[in-house]
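Q: I have 678 residues here and want to know how they pack in 3D. Can you give me a structure?
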Amino acid sequence: MSGRQHADIDSISGLESVGENVQLPTTYVVIKLIPDIQEKALQWLIEKIQGKKTDGGAELIVMLQPKTDPREEYTLHISANMVKLLEVAEDIELIKMDSQGRPVEFTVAQMDDFLIDGKKVDDLITLAERQSIILHELGNIRALTYEKSVPGYPSMKLYENQAVIPFLQNRQLITKMYPLHDEEQLKKMAGYWYLSRLTKQPINAIKDYFGESITLYFAFLEFYTLALIVPAILGLCGTIFTETIPFFSVFNVIWVTLFLELWKRKSNELAYKWGTIGMTSLDEPRPEFRGIMGVDAVTGKVCLQAPRYITYLRMYLVSLPIVIVCMVLAYWLMLFSIWSEDYVKLIEIEEGGMISKDYLIMVPSTVYSIIIPVISAYFKDLATYLTEWENHRTQSQFERHRVTKLVLFEFVNNFLCLFYIAFVLRDVEMLRSQLRTMLIVSQTIYNFQEVFLPLGLNHFHKKSQKINKNTNPETQRQKEKATEACSPLLNIPQLQADDRRIKQAENESRLEEYQDTFDDYLELYIQFGFVFLFSSVYPIAAFWALLNNVLEIRADAFKLCTLYRRSFIRKSKDIGAWQRSFEVLGGLSILTNCGMLYLSPDIRSRFPDYSDMELLMAFMCLEQLLLGVRYLIHIAISDKPEWVRVALARKSYESKQALKFERSQRNKKILYRFRTVQ
């Protein structure tokens, strides 16, 4: 390490060290605990956070926020000094841009390569990365052999090497854990983001602030929305002309394939720029992963391990049957909705009645469309619980198996009724009506859940807080009592009562938690299915999807910046299991649209001399032809752009050369001992 690096780190370390009268420099993460938590448990947790790694601790800095009410939650502010941040950044192989503009793993020994464009050591790790490092260290707090239970809670049993923070969250001793927003940076980014054109989203700024996973969602939403423009225009034209089923059956199949293949290229391009393209199953285990310590056969490192066969047994013998039962129940609910609509059609309504029969017929499908998101929310909780119980090692594995369960259920919940109407009832008008109703109702409900519901809840919390303050004469006395009670309690530094971080932490605590991008992708997945599975029947669906998505980008940006707490960044190299889910829908769209073409009265009227069997064989041949075209497009378009393939090959070559050089230097030292004297 250079002398300049030593000087910089030493000075920063001195500034951020916590002494008796030194304040915490920056709050990176806030932890809230229940108001009546046992003092022993609170003291134990704080000691764990501050403690050495050899004692199962995290070696982080903790400050206590003064309580203003005995009923108020305990609030811990967590930070770390720069030495700790740099040490962990190297340990977790944080990706940073070097002086040559390449995404490489950060190392302290080569720090000069990362100090570019006038950067100082303090600017090297962004706030989002610091918060992610804190989360990583908190997740690695483990129970020791002699710690059999949480102090003060003998019934809360611990096992050796158990992750403490997830356990306390699961037992609801920790109620919330979240990083604080950077208000200045957020305001600057949001102002541009809300008003930017569709192709001008601040992708790099979003990535630096929210992380790769959320940014990939916005990049995908932008790419998908742009790709909808042509189908939307053609769909509007299709409302003018009749007999458009043959054209849209073929066009949309080709379009869907092109869109998904080109997105893979775009995704790999972004992943390379962000340094996540090489993510593998050997990445860090999830904090919730349960197992025993052992030597990894691949890396040789000591880490948590669990038999993989147990996970598979749980998946196939327990989770899969439960998912199938839920799918069957969703199927029967769908049948009940269709039977209800058939029943309504038989009802005789007098002329001039209060309700028109045309509107009454729409009631079952509308009610069914409203029930679907409610059922989906309950199943999401069930799928999350089952996937957690299966005990997957990495976050990517966990997400992949959770998404698979949810996609299977959502396919039945949302699309099976359309298949039933199309191929069992063979009622094109009913199919068009059902598709229109489900598309509009689902998008309305999702937008309400994402924006208006959190907005209303935030407004309600603010109003109720103001009323409580104005109507409670005991407030000031309780504040003094609470402050006196918790001040000497833990013998750790305490924030001043007027510290601005207290107000910020409390304001953000009242916001909704943004868990992940699952609901956002699910909304697009369902919309994608509505638009393209039966595009030949309702081609204008692409226009409504385009209009919704233009608003969706702004709405999602608004909710992340205003209505939700900041989430910890998550690294991601692609959209994961969602890519395969969209591809499956793309493949099914070939079958459904060819099927609709076969059932089309227009086609049958044009070929009156052909029997049903001859027409069926003809459309089966067309289906195979389109599947062949899909495969040709798949192999013709490379998943990675040429420049990405070259860059990856160059990196591999340089790694081999560096290894070869290191080996040659080591060999020289060995051979030097056997030199001969002339």
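Q: Anything worth noting?
A: Confidence is low (pLDDT under 50) at residues 1-7, 9-22. The chain is about 65% helix and 5% strand.
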